[in-house]
Amino acid sequence: MPVYLNGAYLDKAAARVSVDDRGFLFGDGVYEVTRARAGRLFAGDRHLLRLERGMQELELRWPEGLDAAGLAAVSERLLRENDLGEGDAMVYVQITRGGEGTPRTHVFPGPGTPPTVYAAASRFTPPDDARTRGAAAITVPDLRWGRCDLKTIQLLPNVLAKQRAAAAGAYDAVQVRDGIVTEGAHTNVFALLGGVLRTHPAGPRILPGITREIVLELARELELTTSEEPIPAAELPRAAEVFFTGTTTDVMPVVRLDGHALGGGRPGPVAGQLQAKLLERLHATTTGVTPAGR
Ligand code: PDD
């Protein structure tokens, strides 16, 4: 199981990061999770763009000799070397501010301090059984900070929300801030209300999900009316459909919310159509075959 750490490919059990690392001490870093199929990244450019935007916002710099294109090549090599050239897989990449050998201070270490770059590829099984049945969700208060648009490794509120969902037998938690649905613990949230497919607008309160962005494109291709406008949590129970989207989720219909049936208690047709189109796009981009009409 080779992983990538700071320029080297090594056995995962042999990979070591310093206890001074600011990822460990401060959660000072960013990450990406990218889907792969047949050994190729799905929407890899979009994920790398988001990673680079996060790095810019946090003043994290690439180490000598690495950039976004280089990290894509690292990801594909990891897929090959882990025998993931067929089927579904995912690649995790993380860049922290490093700090080995520096004292623990809140202020950034000196400009010569190299970041820590870690990447790993693993097998991924899409949650298709849950999708067929439809998932349960719970609502939780959104406890996060003011820059949820950055994909930082500080995930404690997300971890607590997901844990509460898991303890309740639910797939994910719908986070609610000031009465507005923001997003899931590791997903974005869509609702079909009055014939309009709505999701929270991009901005500091949500992660601009790559799957969210693709699903909005696919919805327009299906000539659905979409609107990036806040969804009051109080409106969710009367939604015709609610679903989560995300790299490890695809389109997941929600059929129970806080113990009550949603959308008739069965996965709805819009979620089904969008899931089918998403798979079509995934298969097309990872095999190089363009879907008809595009
Ligand atoms: N999470 N919102 C949050 C808070 C997320 O962490 C994620 C992804 C999403 C969906 O984004 P995307 O479609 O780009 O995957 C939305 C990843 C999968 C994770 O933390 O494992």
Structural overview:
By secondary structure, the chain is of the alpha+beta class. Helix content is 28%, strand content 29%. Strands 7, 8, 9, 10, 11, 12, 13, 14, 15 and 16 form a 10-stranded mixed sheet that branches. A hairpin with a 2-residue loop joins strand 10 and strand 11. Helix 2 (44-57) crosses helix 3. 40% of the residues are buried. The model has no long low-confidence stretch (mean pLDDT 96). Bound molecules: N-(5'-phosphopyridoxyl)-D-alanine. N-(5'-phosphopyridoxyl)-D-alanine is lined by residues 33, 158, 183, 186-188, 207, 209-212, 245-248.
Tell me the distance between the termini: 38 Å
Main sheet? 10 strands, mixed
Proportion of helical residues: 25-40%
Shape: globular
Q: Low-confidence runs (pLDDT<50, min 5 residues)? A: none
Mean pLDDT: 96
Ligands in the model, by name, code or SMILES, are: N-(5'-phosphopyridoxyl)-D-alanine
Query: Count of helices?
Result: 7
By DSSP, the count of extended strands is 16
Bin the strand percentage.
25-35%
Highlighted features:
alpha+beta, 294 residues, 7 helices
Structure in a nutshell:
With 294 residues, this protein is α+β, with helices and mostly antiparallel strands. The chain has helices at residues 22-26, 44-57, 68-81, 128-133, 156-167, 210-221, 269-287; strands spanning 2-5, 8-11, 29-37, 40-41, 88-96, 116-123, 135-141, 172-177, 180-184, 188-193, 196-199, 225-227, 231-232, 241-246, 250-257, 260-261.
Describe the SSE topology.
Blueprint (H helix, E strand, L loop, with lengths): L1 E4 L2 E4 L10 H5 L2 E9 L2 E2 L2 H14 L10 H14 L6 E9 L19 E8 L4 H6 L1 E7 L14 H12 L4 E6 L2 E5 L3 E6 L2 E4 L10 H12 L3 E3 L3 E2 L8 E6 L3 E8 L2 E2 L7 H19 L7
Helix pairs in contact: 2-3
The site of N-(5'-phosphopyridoxyl)-D-alanine (PDD) has 15 residues, from helix 6 and strand 14.
